[in-house]
Amino acid sequence: MSFRKKSRPDTAPLRLIGLDSRFSDEQLEVLALDTDVLRVPAGDVLARVGEVARQFIAVADGYVEITDQSGHSSVGGSLTQIGATELLTGQQHRATVTTRSEATLVVIFGPAFKSAFTLSALASERGGARGTRAIARGARTDDAPTSSSHASVPALVD
Fold first, then answer.
1. Are 23 and 131 contacting, i.e. CB atoms less than 8 angstroms apart?
2. C-alpha distance across the termini of the chain, in Å
3. How far is CA 40 from the centre of its chain?
4. Contact of 14 with 28, CB cutoff 8 Å
5. How many C-beta atoms lie closer than 10 Å to residue 89's C-beta?
6. For residues 106 and 14, is the Cβ–Cβ distance under 8 A?
7. What is the pLDDT of residue 127?
8. CATH 2.40.10.10 for domain 12-109
9. Cβ partners under 8 Å of residue 125, min gap 6
10. What pLDDT is stored for residue 124 in this prediction?
11. In this structure, what are the phi and psi dihedrals at residue 34, rounded to the nearest 5 degrees?
12. Which residues contact residue 33 at a Cβ distance below 8 angstroms, ignoring those fewer than 6 apart?
């Protein structure tokens, strides 16, 4: 009988967009299970004003146009983040985001992103890596910050 070593999830896309500065290696491996890397053409709408966010999207390569409710638009490139604040606060998208060029996107399933962010914040409050290990062992998490405590969510990547 032979056993194959279980391969680890690919965390490279998450590291590419800078999430390794926010999450531990273990958290990145769990998050990688709910992450896709997509190549999309110019003109794809990634988010619309007033819609509920269902995923976190980061632009790894390419350009997006961000148009707010008043019609003001700007262009974003690599590391532009879409949906983080909305996922964490329960708000709807405040801008429509459309690809201006072919783009490579790192897309994380919304509930997985929100859970990882909440656990990361909780672990930081409980002592960094020690807190992360305690959570992984099943420590209580019912005192995790609620989405309403994220009134101003900082960018995930500095």
1. no
2. 49
3. 18
4. yes
5. 17
6. yes
7. 61
8. no
9. 131
10. 73
11. -115, 30
12. 9, 112
Note if the pTM is more than 0.70: yes
Enter the tokens of residue 13: 């896309």
Q: Two tokens at 158?
A: 């500095």
Q: Torsion over CA of 139, 142, 147 and 152, rounded to 10 degrees?
A: -60
| Ranges of residues in the chain whose predicted pLDDT is under 70 | 1-6, 127-158
The amino acid at residue 117 is F
Token pair 């690919």 is found at 10
Residue 100's identity, in one-letter code, is R
Instruction: Kindly report the backbone phi and psi dihedral angles of residue 70, in degrees, each rounded to the nearest multiple of 5, phi listed first.
Output: -85, -5
Tell me the pLDDT tens digit for each residue of 49-90.
999 999 999 999 999 999 999 999 999 999 999 999 999 999
* Distance separating alpha carbons of residues 141 and 128, to the nearest angstrom: 15
